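User: Teach me something about this protein's shape.
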Amino acid sequence: MKRFALSPAAVFITAVPVAIAFFVIAAHAQPSRAVLRGHIHPLAKAENDRGRVSPTLQLSYVTLALAQSDTQKASLDQLLAQQQTPGSPNYHRWLTPEEFGQRFGASDADLNKVTAWLQGQGLTIAAVARGRNWIAVNGAAPQIESAFQTELHEYVVNGEPHFANASEPSVPSELGGIVKGIRGLHDFRPKPSGHLVKPAYTGSRSTHYLAPNDFATIYDVTPLYNANINGSGQKLVVAGQTQVALSDIETFRSNFGLPANDPTPLLVPGSRDPGVSSQDVPEADLDLEWSGAIARNASITFVYSYDVMTAVQYAIDQDLAPVISSSYGSCEPETPSADALALEAVAKQGNAEGITWINSAGDSGGADCDDSQNPGLAVDTPASIPEVTGMGGTEFSEGSGTYWRATNDTTQASALSYIPEMIWNDSANDGQPAAGGGGVSIYFAKPSWQTGPGVPGNNARNVPDISLTASADHDGYMVYTGGSLQIYGGTSVPAPSFAGIATLLNQYLVSNGIQSSPGLGNMNPALYSLAQTQPSAFHDITTGNNIVTVPCTSRTRGCTNTAVGYNAGVGYDNASGLGSIDAYNLVTKWSGQAVTPPPSNTSITLLSNLTSFGTTDTVFVTATATGTGGTTPVGVIQFESGNAILGSAALVGSAGIASATISVSGTQLSLGSETITAVYAQTGLSNATASITVSVKPASASTGIPSITGLANGASFTQSFSPGAILSVFGSQLSSSTEAASSVPLPISMAGVAATVNGVAAPLYYVSPGQLNIQIPYETAANSTVTLSVNNNGQVSSKTFTVATAAPGIFFNYQNGLIVPTGSTTRGQIITLFITGAGTVTPAIPTGAAPASGTAIASLPRPSQTTTITVGGVTAASEFIGIPVGLVGVTQINFQVPSSIGIGTQPVVVTTGGVSSPAAQLSVTN
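Assistant: First, the predicted structure itself:
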């Protein structure tokens, strides 16, 4: 038997051999359901549960998000990068919803299968996405409960009634690979971000409030108006969750000298009409008035539904406008992961269609949840989604300067010029958190474009991206709502205001022949590039902070009144992002060199995980590009062999280093020695190239049909398995030769051998005639029976096995049962062990991949589920739990041996997500 060996980890350990035992797996019955994880709302707690909902409850627009294949995901990410890369054939070539559906949506067969099943459950089809990536249904609570095998319960949270699913939903197993998530099983809707400070307009000589022309003066929009860049011919969507009275918008425009231009209300067809919501009307009026105050002649559509994110989803699927503004959100710790990921999929579709989605970043500073359940650091979603532009808040800081006239003009404006800004934080004055949202996402990794001075060196998405004035106290925005003039602030106003600026930018680019049609897609890559190449387009905010304290209630356990947040700094910071903007400079410097990084004499290296392989093998080839001066290379790497193009891939990275990977089949190359070359075209410089030599052998002849006689967890030798874990396959004729992977990412074939789990490629650590070591793909559905297929040079054999959410197994020495690498120690010492089978990890990591070299320890992937360790039955304190650099599917745990245990051999047990590993042994000598 092949002993599975841990590869060297750059920071932590050296290789340690451990043995694998042989087990025969009994056949398991195919379960009837596939459970969909990540759907329990964090606020649907047992203590808030009031029992089952009424059977008369009607649910509207429950949306099933449909899965993409790995190939579709990779292709979409590549397209999105190319659409933002000047010089790429796909640069700003936007898709229609139908084109998106054809390339990245579900097949007709899958759509028909899901639709037929839903109708068979008595549910009414409300809509099928043009992008072929979701299906919405309406139905009564009993029908929803029966269809998704979950109970809907009533919950009372902070005195407010809600409903939510009490357990994870599921779908029939045959739909498990098609349906990836469900939105709409709860009514914890996103909340608006606006801050009201005064019941009426009471301006005096010492108090200033913002009129539209004040904003135009301060942020340099007026020169655009003078050049007739006013939104004419452009479209903009504002998303909401209430009906509105157009009379308030009409009064606003009339009183501030704006041309008459009513927005068009549009209720999402088939969705629940929210009616007039007193909590949401001020937000809707604010968003419509201030987006129209900036893009004054644009055609604005107010898309609304009971849930504002349903409105955003519909606007994107219908491609209603190239700019969407929404000022709603929820903090990440109180957002189901399935909801966050579903919204990212919607945002990616929007970007592919050329749509820019702009969203407020929250008004509770660094503690976005603003409650005693989660009083610590948190950020707001959807602003935290990388494909969304997140808006933070600033506050004017006049000092002794003169920035206002003594009297207003006929448009109620009095600002004289740009006013210096600091971070918005009125928490002390207001007696509650009132500051611009910002911080580090727990759901989304750092995108490759988020680089530049001040950007934290973490592996997470940072927000906000940019900011505008947001203080209601100094100086608030004037808004007509409920028939009267009110004063508002909060990041709710920067979002529609900047959406108006983005609309002006679209008009400028089209009217000057720079683009043939409007559409910016994801603005963020260009914003971060522009901040480095055209700093005059930004005002760097270097003073203030968004540090707040969330008060704890007497009944909240484990809560401390601790101030959390971030300080301003030079360049990017988590309090203001890139700072505020100069609209004229932003718009006029956007095109050409403004979106192209400066030449950096980029160097590249090339690596293949196998240098000798057969014609039936598929290997990974990775090019790594390193820029100079901290500039992260962007664009596309092209891979060639001779005169043949093997493929191309977009660079992804940060902090000056980016990489691009493609898979190459041996059939693409000639037999014998072949040279593969990576080519990176640099703007204004000669191409950067790198080459490697590989050896291609004839395909191995199969020795016959593979026979699978047993499966085992690669560490514990038990029949327990989870997504991402190492699986050892035993039998005969599994391979015609013996080979081992030499680097990461792991190959998906060696010696003509490939394996799949439920049709998804399972990367290979090792192949031999009698044993294979593979990684179970992270994409594998947990709590289900799956099918392993082994293909040995055209001969295929299969076997089923059951996958759980977690199946921790400790690597140990086969000879004596002691953990490795340290089987003997003394009490109180900090030592290390390794496990496989921890299940999914956060941040997510691709199947077959290891964390990139140089990844900060705090950013390494960690088990998504709680993981603990005991020694001799005593809980041990863990110093580190995560996947280190260089390892695939293996979690490292550094822990302190409890001082209270006895001397001698003690059992060691790791528990993940409530699942305990078989005990390994530790010899305690003192």
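Now, about its shape. The chain is about 15% helix and 30% strand. The first strand starts at residue 33 and ends at 35. If you'd like, I can walk through any region in more detail.
User: That's plenty for now, thanks!
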